[in-house]
Amino acid sequence: MSTRGAYAKGVAKREEILDAALAVVAEHGYRKASVREIADAAGLSPAGLLHYFGSKEELFVAILRARDDRDQQQYTAEDASAAFLAIMRHNASVPGLVQLYAQLAAEAGDPSHPAHAYFRERTDRIEAFTRAQVAADQEAGLLRADLDPAWVVRSLHALADGLQTAWMLDPSLDMAAEIEQFLVLLRPV
Questions:
Q1: Predicted structure pTM score
Q2: Tens of pLDDT along 127-183?
Q3: Can you list the domains of the chain with their CATH numbers?
Q4: End-to-end CA distance of the chain, in Å?
Q5: Which positions, given as ranges, span the membrane (predicted)?
Q6: What's the pLDDT tens digit per position in 57-110?
Q7: Which of the listed ranges 17-31, 79-93, 114-128 does the model predict with the highest average pLDDT?
Q8: What is the DSSP letter of 21?
Q9: Contacts for 170-178 with beta carbons within 8 Å, 24 or more apart?
């Protein structure tokens, strides 16, 4: 077998593992999703699973990357606000992934943690895109022009993360509705 064929099979297997891992973590959460459970769902041994990811922490970072990729594909819209709200609504249906995100976000404050680079890159990418969208919305008269786009983006990011934490404690909280209320405050009077 050629190296290219082996590589393609490895990539396909990794995607298969991530599909299984997303389902396991979404259902059971970060703490209850063991490497053994994910390996079983993917039809592998725990050692076989870690062959593709190196460590449990790297597997969990890969799960978050896969979640981001899928959210981006599914919720891409011309209206960035509508896409953001749709993702927040979707998050309420995948509590385990919200738990994983919150847990790794806290742990990633340590620069030596495997998730540190992921969260830095993710934050930079999302905030750059969102700052550009806020500036365009201000130019179009959809958002108050007196607000600093960077402040708006940081505030939305902090609000979304904080709401996810609050929602984990009280799942009756409507995260998207709370964000919609904040967005109303940003509109011109």
A1: 0.85
A2: 998 999 999 999 999 999 999 999 999 999 999 999 999 999 999 999 999 999 999
A3: 3-185 (1.10.357.10)
A4: 66
A5: none
A6: 899 999 999 999 999 888 876 678 888 999 999 999 999 999 999 999 999 999
A7: 114-128
A8: H
A9: 171/92, 171/95, 174/92, 175/88, 175/89, 175/91, 175/92, 176/85, 176/86, 176/88, 176/89, 176/92
Quick one: CA dihedral 160, 162, 168, 170, positive or negative? negative
Tokens of 35: 């490497």
Query: Tokens 């609050």, residue?
Result: 166
For 80, phi then psi, to 5°, come to: -60, -35
Helices (H), the chain: 3-28, 35-42, 46-53, 56-75, 80-91, 95-107, 116-139, 149-169, 175-185
Length of the chain, in residues? 189
Tokens 């179009």 correspond to what residue? 140
pLDDT for the residue 77: 65
What is the token pair recorded at 143? 């958002």
